[in-house]
Amino acid sequence: MSGAGTKFPRSYQQAMFVGDWSRGTIYAVHLSPVGASYHGQCEPLATGVGGVTDLIVSPTDGALYFTVGGRQTQGGLYRIVWDGPSASAAGAAADGAAVADDTAAKARAARRALEELHGEHASGAESPAWAGLSSPDRFIRYAALTALERVDASSWQDRALGETDLLARFTALMALARRDQPAQPHKWVGAIAAVEFHKLSEQEQQTVVRATSLGVMRFRNLDSALRKRLATTVSEWRPTQRRAVDRELAKLLVRLESADIVPALVAELHAAAASEAAIDAAVTLSAARAGWSTESRSALLDWFDEAAKRYGGRSFYPYLVAARARFVAGFDALERVQFAERLAPPVRPEDDSDFETPRKFVKRWTANEVVRVVERSEQESPAGESAALDGRRVFLALGCADCHAVAGEGSSVGPDLTNVGRRYSVADLARAITQPSDEVPDLYRQTTFVSGGRAITGRPTNMTSTTISVTTDMRDPASAVKLQRDEIESQSLSPTSAMPSNLLDTLTADEVAALFAYLREPSRETAGGRPSATID
User: Fold this and answer.
1) Which of 375, 384, 480, 526 pairs with 86 at a CA distance of 20 to 30 A?
2) Secondary-structure breakdown of the chain: helix, strand, coil percentages, each rounded to the nearest 5
3) How far apart are CA 200 and CA 303, in angstroms?
4) Are strands 405-406 and 73-82 parallel, antiparallel or unpaired?
5) Which CATH class is domain 350-427+499-529?
6) pLDDT (tens digit per residue) in 115-154
7) Would you say the C-alpha torsion 328, 334, 338, 340 has a positive or negative sign?
8) For the chain, what are the domain ranges?
């Protein structure tokens, strides 16, 4: 929603307002010109307002009106009004300082002119789009690339291969990979081998790597000799000491089945100063199919074992589980025998929870009973800090973190619960936990497929023209079942939530209260710098 028409300070009149239902927050997005496009700075304007469903600016009073509710939660209509100095006074200084940005305006005009060519089919070698291919502005280059790929590549690929400007050459080669394939693939490889890669800027290096990677993925006429020559060339480019570039070079070398990249990445795996760099190396290695030794296989398995201890409670951990499964799937028969005792995924530690396992049945909790217990607990202990701490242990013991994250701890299989207390009342939250199938969000709804007389219920996670992969347990990527489309007898949305309805049945009243204190803990985010505004 545009801020135009609000009686807010000028910077907010020129902002965009965005409602975040999940976090119960309204953001003001301030745009500033950057070349042919814009940069957006996101500022929390109002927090803890509930699940925002819509926003509108009233032309009558200049207030921002918004509604909350959805998914059987209490709805409401509110407005935000400015209660500081008059909007005109607040914006006067900005008006006086405002200077037209001719450079940005010209860049946007150039981009729009190129976008006008997207429906034309002029000769590619003489196309007016060619001038935009060498622009330092990536948005202009992309508009030129899109215009060029609309044209038959036979009319311009010779010029692309002989282009002296590096950005123009490799942007055109991206268009070639998106449009066709090289008529003379040895010339395409030669154009890449001629690059003095270490002399390039980071932007130029990224352009070269992206164009090369796209060609390796799409061109069908690159024989093994050309791919080997390309792998030798690219190996000499790495490392650059630029993390983003080195990461993409590693992926390219894995795709080219370079013999050098596996030992290089294994060495980086343990030497990486930043955990992000080690994760990059491990995930890239998991896709490698060549260059392995017994020692390097063992080293990556060791890293995944350690990752289970270090990152097992983090929301991104399922991606590491999937990477390990991909790595193990690449073992040959001999390696499977050799590493038989290590093929099973490592068990995540149970953190600091000391709850007995398995849990014993206490009672069948209803939503109303939960509400009474929580409200009584809040009346007796309003602060609830120790209860929230105990609630985290309950959250982990019940396995909630296997599907949900709170403040970055847990998994992304289900909805993020970081600020769930902002948009759900106690009654709403109790009903969502004890009766999860009453309202299943579309994003997390399962589908039941009938194939060969058996029913498979889960979430489709990969589709091709002939198959559908259905993951029956989102916590376990290995649970995916691949179905042939022509063998599927029927499919229908499942009315049942993947979340169990008896989740609380092993908890005492004190544990239920502690869990809710944890889930409804005040926001774990801070949002300073907001304007003085009133919500009514």
Assistant:
1) 526
2) 50, 15, 35
3) 34
4) unpaired
5) mainly alpha
6) 988 876 555 566 788 989 999 999 999 999 999 998 889 9
7) positive
8) 10-99, 259-349, 350-427+499-529, 446-493
